[in-house]
Amino acid sequence: MTSTLTQVYPIIWESDGLRPAEGDRASLIDQTRLPDEYTRIEITTYQQMAEAIKTMIVRGAPAIGIAAAYGLYLGARDIQTSDRQKFLIQLEEIAQVLRATRPTAVNLFWAIDQMLKTATETSGTIDDIKTALLQKAHLIREEDIQTCFAIGEAGLTVLPQTPEKLTILTHCNTGSLATGGYGTALGVIRSAWNSGRLNRVYADETRPRLQGAKLTTWECVQDQIPVTLISDNMAAHCMKQGLIHAVIVGADRITANGDTANKIGTYSLAIVAKAHNVPFFVAAPLSTVDFKLATGEEIPIEERDPTEVYQVGTTRICPEGVEFFNPAFDVTPAELITAIITEKGAVIPSELKQFNSSC
Fold it and tell me: Choosing from 24, 223, 252, 290, which is the catalytic residue?
């Protein structure tokens, strides 16, 4: 069994030279067009990157962070001043625009903070700072890919020992498309497949944006991983029938106590897994852990455009006069999570604090 999708990256950097140049650009897979059409979009300004994040052309917490890092560099590249203080002020204004795109995914804020720290700590000319920012964006991307491989290997250590070949249920998309490459939860699944431990993936559709149906199944087909698509409300039935041996999901933000915000529908999936004694795992890099927040009650939950609920494509599916509620995420309490799988290993939620470098 071999994996080919690791050669497909949601964000790549296209450069006309070694040093920052006007022709440099980020190239994004337009995930809104998958699975029907594989298209890349060139991003040359921070405004374009902000729009790509907001409209979910790029999605997934780690991928959003990488995109924001390149977006901040693109904004920095176009700042026309030789005054260091003015440059940093304008850079912070650009950062604010990028921060406002998606409020829940903490990797967005983490990556921006890493970039701003690089800017303030780099000595020399403005051009030196711009070069350092581009190098930092590259590093954030490269480290995320390596982190995903480490998460995949860590996940293998906590998967159920029986049966030998597992059937794993996942929700939303947590693969190469959601990260620098390889994936978090889908990275664990991919590692299980490559090591002969996986029988099949069950993928929730993930309403209302259908990331499971459109993206996760696409990645599995590319890698020739057996995948069965189900609607979100079929999970309980599948578990009752004994079809599911484990659930692995990703995360957009994890608080200090292990409460986890992830794509809407994750919380109910965790409750169902608990009721059927199916282990429920969260796979995410440590950059997704927000140690500044004590519990999930403090996580801001993004509400998205109601058209995502009342339209499928261009077809309206409900009558005029209906009201709508469209939270993009929900919070799974730590007590429902069997383990959190990180690049440093898998731990029960209460042990996350050992990874808090600020303590």
Answer: 252
Secondary structure element (H or E) that encloses residue 263, with its range: strand 260-263
Sheet hosting strand 339-342, strand order edge to edge: 227-230, 198-204, 166-170, 246-249, 280-283, 339-342, 345-347
pTM above 0.85, yes or no: yes
Tell me the C-alpha distance between 179 and 264, whole Å. Answer: 19
8 A C-beta contact, residue 286 and residue 253: no
Would you call 117 exposed, middle or buried from its count of C-beta atoms within 10 A (0-12, 13-18, 19+)? exposed
SS3 content of the chain, % helix, strand, coil (to 5): 45, 20, 40
CA diameter of the chain: 67
252 is catalytic: yes
Residue indicated by tokens 């199916």:
278
Using CA atoms, how far apart are residues 227 and 169, in angstroms rounded to an integer? Answer: 10
By the 10 Å C-beta count (0-12 exposed, 13-18 middle, 19+ buried), 65 is classed as buried
With H, G, I as helix, E, B as strand and everything else as coil, classify residue 281.
Answer: strand
Q: What is the pLDDT of residues 276-297, one digit of tens each?
A: 999 999 999 999 999 999 999 9
